[in-house]
Write a structure and sequence with these properties.
9 helices, about 280 residues, four-stranded parallel sheet, WH_DNA-bd_sf, four-stranded antiparallel sheet, Rossmann fold, alpha/beta, elongated, Arc Repressor Mutant, subunit A
Length: about 280
């Protein structure tokens, strides 16, 4: 089995190489097993050497039955995926924020007396998030708040300012250039994670996250047959996490800003196989 481009891992227990005796674009992995006279050879089905290393380090502990190594390898794989998609995560978050603001401004423009609660219900986003967008829009001069005494009740009505109208046009243009709705894209990601959890019969779910992504994840969980136990902030202490994890079947992460740290923290307390993490 002549080869070139070899490299070794785990004190030479794993050898990665490209085959020379037949055409193959993938890296091959050769595993030395203590109780076998001959090594096991498998295709990693990876073109990239770094991805092949991650694959081999994940498979090796499964072969030799080392649970601690399996956990470390799972974490390394998740970290590689998160690093790969990190720019996309930041971009997706920015697009979601743009779309929420656009929808808020459009609803205000069409109904000056609309309440924050009504907008929250229509957009299926928490009232706290909508309140933060109202505050930003007011401070930025995009909307003007006026006291209303209609029907002998005290309240507010909102008007779109000239600056707000221009900003709304800019948001429409930006989102048209980006194509499909980010709400729909992210919901599909979480809908797929929910399906995985339902298929594996993980009935009780802990949601660890905050902000817009947590709201979207929560929406998908509420549509499912899964039982949402808690929504926990990613900054929760270890004792708080341990208490929440005692009765859950799996954990869904909705924290794009600190996904790596959150996943690492959770993996110390629960199997990485039970952590549901979107690629967005």
């Amino acid at each position: 089995m002549a080869s070139t481009n070899s490299c070794f891992l785990e004190n030479r227990e794993i050898r990665l190489f490209k085959r020379q005796d037949r055409t193959s674009a993938f890296w091959q992995a050769e595993f030395k097993i203590p109780w076998r006279s001959r090594p096991i050879v498998k295709s990693t089905r990876q073109h990239d050497l770094e991805a092949a290393k991650i694959w081999a380090l994940k498979v090796y502990p499964v072969i030799v039955g080392d649970r601690e190594r399996q956990i470390q390898a799972d974490l390394a794989e998740k970290q590689l995926l998160i690093q790969k998609f990190k720019p996309r995560i930041r971009n997706a978050k920015h697009k979601v924020q743009q779309e929420i603001m656009l929808r808020v401004l459009q609803l205000i423009d069409s109904n000056h007396a609309i309440s924050q609660r009504a907008i929250s219900d229509q957009l299926q986003v928490s009232i706290g998030v909508i309140n933060s967008y109202f505050t930003l829009a007011t401070e930025s001069g995009w909307i003007k708040k006026v006291t209303s005494h209609q029907h002998k009740t005290f309240g507010y009505i909102y008007f779109l300012t000239e600056t707000g109208s221009r900003h709304m046009d800019q948001l429409i243009q930006a989102l048209l250039q980006n194509g499909l709705s980010l709400f729909d894209e992210i919901r599909l990601e979480y809908a797929e994670l929910v399906k995985q959890a339902e298929a594996k019969k993980w009935g009780k779910i802990l949601l660890v996250g905050r902000g817009n992504l947590a709201d979207i994840a929560l929406l998908e969980l509420q549509k499912s047959t899964l039982n949402l136990l808690y929504v926990l902030d990613p900054d929760a202490t270890e004792p708080e996490l341990i208490k929440a994890l005692q009765s859950c079947g799996a954990v869904m992460v909705a924290d794009p800003d600190h996904a790596i740290q959150t996943s690492r923290k959770l993996a110390k307390l629960i199997s990485p196989d039970l952590i549901l993490l979107p690629t967005l």
